[in-house]
Amino acid sequence: MLAATVSFTGELLITVGVVLALFVAYSLWWTNVEANREAGRMGDRLRDTWQGAPEKPGALDTRGGIGFLHVPSMADEVLVRAGTSPKILNKAVAGYYRDPLASAMPWDKQGNVTLAAHRDGHGAKFHNIHKIGIGDPIVFETKDTWYVYKTFATLPSTSKFNVGVLKPVPEGSGRARAGRYITLTTCTPMYTSNYRYVVWGELVRTEKVDARRTPPRELR
């Protein structure tokens, strides 16, 4: 009788474990589907705005996003919006930091463009960040300019409280002078949020966007 009870309990626990694992997998998959759909719609709206809005002076309107990130070794294009809260990042976008240190913009003459995105679930736009290697291109597309960066350093694991990686001259990157940098951050290890994975790039050139939006050679 005892053996039968133990056997039944063991089978029940295994079944519960399998069901929970399937639920988690389904949840991650479905959040990716929903978030990517929403991100696609937002990206289309931003491009429509670029095509239809006349040039006029005034403050930059960043509500719909400031552009698109392209990293061939990691993912397809990623819409970039303001902020890094779950409300923003859960929509399958990358967000630029506004705190604890404010990000520079790609068009600034100096500074560090600092971005974050999810590694798992909700679009998981930085899921393959570990595939970015030294020398790989990171391209930021805005309405009128392609900003081409070259990866020069990575930090596979650091404290989530390490804000030094976001400084204008990012700590731990090996750079000691002001320049035009880009920093990508996400959670690590996968399926956790204990630490941060960091990738750094440095601007190597810019290209004006032509009428056909022909991408730079790094994206062809």
From TrEMBL:
NCBIfam families: class_E_sortase. This is Class E sortase. It holds the Pfam family Sortase. CDD domains: Sortase_E. Keywords: Hydrolase, Membrane, Transmembrane, Transmembrane helix. The chain crosses the membrane at residues 12-31. InterPro entries: Sortase, Sortase_Class_E, Sortase_dom-sf, Sortase_E.
